[in-house]
Structures are given as structure tokens and as C-alpha cells.
Amino acid sequence: MVRRNNVHPANARSLRAAAARLRRGELVAFPTETVYGLGANALDERAVAKIFAAKGRPGDNPLIVHVGDLKMLRRVIRRMPPLAARLAAQFWPGPLTIVLSKKSSVPSLVTAGLDTVAVRMPQGLARDLVRLAGVPIAAPSANLSGRPSPTTAAHVAEDFPDVYVLDGGPTAHGLESTVVTLEPHPAVLRQGALSEESLRKCIPGLGRRETSSRRAAGRVGRAGGGGARRRPRAAAPSPAVSPGTKYTHYAPSRPLILFLRKSSLRSYFRSHPSALVLCPNRVSSFFPKQNLLLLGNSPEEIGRNLFAALRTRRKGTELLALAIPRRGVGRAVMDRLTRAATRMVR
Length: 346
Ligand code: TXA
Ligand code: MG
Description:
Bound molecules: threonylcarbamoyladenylate, magnesium ion
Distance between the termini: 37 Å
CATH topology of the largest domain: DHBP synthase
Structural class: alpha/beta
Largest sheet: 11 strands, mixed
Number of domains: 2
Radius of gyration: 20 Å
Low-confidence stretches: 224-239
Strand order of the largest sheet: 1-8-2-3-7-4-6-5-9-10-11
Number of helices: 11
CATH architecture of the largest domain: Alpha-Beta Complex
């Protein structure tokens, strides 16, 4: 892999330089425990505008604000409900984003005009950077809008050759944070690296309010039939509660077909032997080695490898993926696969 000159190995010096850039209103890409983020000072509207411009992100898709500690959190939220305090005590720092009522100091650009703000306290290097910067950091995933989220510094540099990137190696989870709201009832808005099962231990009544629009929606078919759409685009309007989830996402550079059953994947592959198969290790014996891109065994491992696989440069006319059980982190994996797929086959 070629090292680009905008990529800087994370160390005390580069962290200080990155924090200074953030304070000056510039963009910095940095690793979190989930995916790489493209950060700017959340309280500086001009800095935040650079994020939307660089990503080509629609203005109605609000950003997550990252805080280093609870004192910084109080600069952006109006109040901390007891349930939010419980969640924070249990899961922060970590891959959980909580939607809370926002203070007026947070520019409406950050929240796309909503009176709520999505906040999280990240782990490790990301938290160190936010604390060094001394300001809350708005950061979406560091990919061009519609592309798979970046899990390495090289992915970020591919999409943003001119942005200062801190390289902290591959990210731990490889999937974005889980987004929850507490109002009017606690509910998951976006599946993510923290499983619903873990959250439910803290919130027994947890519901779900995900947006169902996805690239493959309405294109579920049988093996062999149907065309593939390549261009990501906004889906039909829907009452999106996590606005970003209504946009199509994670689009690989070629068609991706999601198979719900192993048998349909195998039969499709027989007539499309130049395809690249993205699958759990356990089904690898059904396909020639040169056609395989193995994702791993556990849902966690598959989650960690998924976005890099969607960016693969390996040969293959199309990408064929196999569904995994919607349990634990498997739910987030399936959410991303469904959104990335040009169509689904039963
Ligand atoms: O793991 C992550 O969450 C990564 C890292 C960088 O922290 N960030 C990330 O950001 O995935 P982004 O912008 O790609 O996704 C943010 C999601 C979108 O679905 C957005 O609609 C939702 O959070 N969101 C942000 N503010 C919201 C709000 N006030 N109410 C509801 N949903 C909100
Ligand atoms: Mg994103």
C-alpha cells in the first residue's frame, strides 16, 4: 500500500498537530473504535460546513458530536435524562450514540435544523484527540457520501487525498456506532457495533425505529433474474427518524448481490464463475479460492472486515454476499449489506 503524504502515523506530535488544526477550524480525519471520522470543531459553523462540502453530504443529514468527557457533553446538551446517564455510565467511552436535546450553542448545520443532537464519547485515540482539541468534534464517517465507511487510513486517503489523516491502524469494530433515541420511547435508530442485546440489559423496553429504505428494497428476486443499479441515490421520502439512514449507502464500485440462502448463492455462482464471493469462512469450501474474499467467522469478525471488502480492488465481475443471522452484531452487518446491495436473492 502506498503511503500518502497526507497520512500521519498517530503519535504525541501528530495528535497535537491534529488538535491544533481542529482548533483553527480545519478538518482532520482520525480513527475511532468504530470507523474513521472526518472531524471539525462542532461549535464552529464554518468548520462544520467544510465537512458537508468535502463529503458531498446532503444538508438534511445531521452529524454526530464527539465529546471527551461529561463536562464537554454539557456544552452541547440541554439536559441529561437519568436513562442517558445510565447508558453513558455503562457504555461510554464506546460505540454508542445517544440523541439528546441540544443547546443553542450547537450550530443548526450540525443537527440539520433538529432540536436534538447525537452525541457519543469515543474510546482511545479519538477521545485523546477530542480532549486535546478542547472542543466537541462533529464527525461523520470519513468517506465520500454514498461510499463504504473507512476502516483504515488508506481508505480515508483514497476518498480525501488532501485532508490531514491520523493513522491509528485498522479500527477495532469496523462498523459504526449504534444510534439510540430516548424520546418519546427508547429506540434504536441505527444498528451498530454495540448490539441491541447488550443495550436491552440496560433498557428492557428498547424498541426499534429504523428506516427501511435501502438500495435493494423492492428488488428481491430469485437467482438469475433482474438487473443491478450502480448509482447510490436518495431513497423515496419516508418519516426518517435518523435522517441519514434514508440515504443509500456503502455502495461498492460494482454490483453487489445479497443472497439469503447458501443454495441460491451456489447456483448463481455456477453460471457466474467470474464473480467474487464475500462470505463467512465456514462456506468457503464451496467456491474456488481465487473467487473468495473471506470475511471471518464470528459476526464481530465479519463486521470488522466488511467495509474493506466492499472497497476491494480484487478481480470479479460482481460481488456476491451471503446473509448471516440477524443476531447481535449480525444485525448491523445485515443492515449494511442490505443497504449496499443492488439486489437481494432469496
Ligand atoms: O461510529 C460512528 O458513529 C461514526 C464515528 C466517526 O463516530 N460516525 C458516523 O457518522 O457513523 P455518520 O454521520 O456517518 O452517521 C451519523 C448517523 C446518521 O444516520 C444520522 O442521521 C444520525 O447519526 N443522526 C445524527 N444526528 C441525529 C439526530 N439529531 N437525530 C437522529 N439521528 C441523528
Ligand atoms: Mg456514514
